[in-house]
Specification:
The chain is α/β, with parallel strands linked by helices and 348 residues long. The protein has 2 domains: 2-30 and 50-79 and 319-344, no CATH class; 83-296, 3-Layer(aba) Sandwich (Rossmann fold). 41% of the residues lie in helices and 20% in strands. The radius of gyration is 32 Å and the shape is elongated. 34% of the residues are buried.
């Protein structure tokens, strides 16, 4: 916990003085009591005294003042808050190596199953878009709240040659910011690539807005999750694409699967050498203020997406909590006054 006005905490030093004043008033009150000749007569005259109850309302009022003075210092705390709006782009590798069976039943099916489980676990108000990338990138599904459309899009993946991780990131950004004038013909192979709802994404037909860079990770309304099992073989440099995302404040969470040692994987009568480029994926996540995850098995992949689900719909944010202490102080003051009236018929 920190404070916006920490100097106001000095006001709390007055609280011990209030305790001393209260003790002095009690002592003065006892001295002013009429002395009677007999202790028995005194007890009969006083009746049953309030005992410990006389101290409860003042103690509660003291705590109320402490809470209110604490609120004046404007305390802040880092708390987890739900995001009001969120769009998530799933950028998924559909290169030929995704057919490998080192992750059962194979890498493609395992990634599809994990992605579909992830989508179904998201709140209904969260929009999800799907980008596939191999030699080029394509919008398989524009952002939508329809889980059925997203799942159907994931099931439509078609494997292709090559791996263009940078293209996947750039097309994801163009999908999130269609009016930023992001050039995409070099990543899609077409000048205007239609989205899942048939709308073109690109400059044509769009009023381009002036782009102003923002701090990395500051855009909380959208995020990209990129999954790949290889390294870039064509297309833009993924680190350059990551810088584009960082300038727009978008976090790119990267998920790596498969081998990191550069092994020969064979299937359907032919073989190919594949290696997961973990270093680049870590750098992409670092540049965009996100995280990198590695999944060596289908179970690992499911756990990665489960963890990402909670990150995608909440955020940890430093928030001023003065109102909480002010409300606590008001509540304690009301309880103090209420008990005083109930027990003694007056506000002490």
């Amino acid at each position: 916990m920190s404070f916006i006005w920490p100097s106001m905490l000095w006001l709390l030093a007055a609280l011990p003085l209030l305790v001393l004043v209260y003790a002095w008033l009690l002592k003065r009150r006892r001295k002013s009591t009429v002395r009677l000749a007999s202790l028995g007569v005194a007890k009969a005259a006083l009746g049953k005294g309030p005992g410990w109850r006389r101290h409860v309302p003042p103690a509660l009022m003291w705590l109320a003042l402490a809470a209110l003075l604490f609120a004046v210092s404007r305390p802040t705390a880092t708390i987890t808050l739900p995001l009001a709006e969120r769009t998530i782009i799933l950028a998924m590798d559909v290169s030929g190596s995704m057919r490998a069976e080192d992750i059962k039943p194979n890498r493609l099916i395992a990634s599809q199953d994990a992605a579909k489980t992830f989508v179904q676990a998201l709140p209904r108000e969260v929009k999800v878009g799907v980008i596939s990338f191999a030699g080029t990138a394509a919008v398989v599904q524009a952002p939508t709240t329809s889980r059925e459309d997203v799942i159907a899009a994931i099931d439509r993946f078609q494997l292709q040659r090559a791996t263009a991780t940078g293209s996947g990131i750039i097309l994801s950004l163009a999908t999130l910011f269609p009016d930023h004038g992001i050039e995409i013909q070099h990543v899609t192979g077409q000048r205007n690539f239609p989205g899942g709802n048939g709308r073109p994404i690109g400059r044509d037909g769009k009023e381009e807005k002036k782009f102003t860079p923002v701090p990395a990770g500051s855009y909380t309304s959208a995020a990209i999750i990129m999954l790949t099992d290889g390294q870039r073989t064509t297309g833009p440099d993924p680190l350059d694409a990551a810088k584009m995302a960082a300038e727009r404040g978008v976090r790119v969470y990267t998920v790596g699967m498969g081998t990191t040692k550069g092994e020969i994987i064979g299937f359907e009568g032919w073989s190919m050498r594949v290696r997961l480029d973990e270093e680049t994926l870590k750098q992409v996540a670092l540049i965009t203020q996100a995280e990198y995850f590695y999944a060596g098995t289908a179970e690992d992949l499911q756990k990665v997406y489960e963890g990402l689900s909670s990150r995608m719909v909440t955020e940890r944010k430093e928030t001023e909590i003065s109102a909480l202490f002010a409300a606590l102080g008001a509540l304690l003051a009301l309880v103090s006054a209420g008990l005083s009236v109930w027990w003694f018929g007056r506000v002490a």
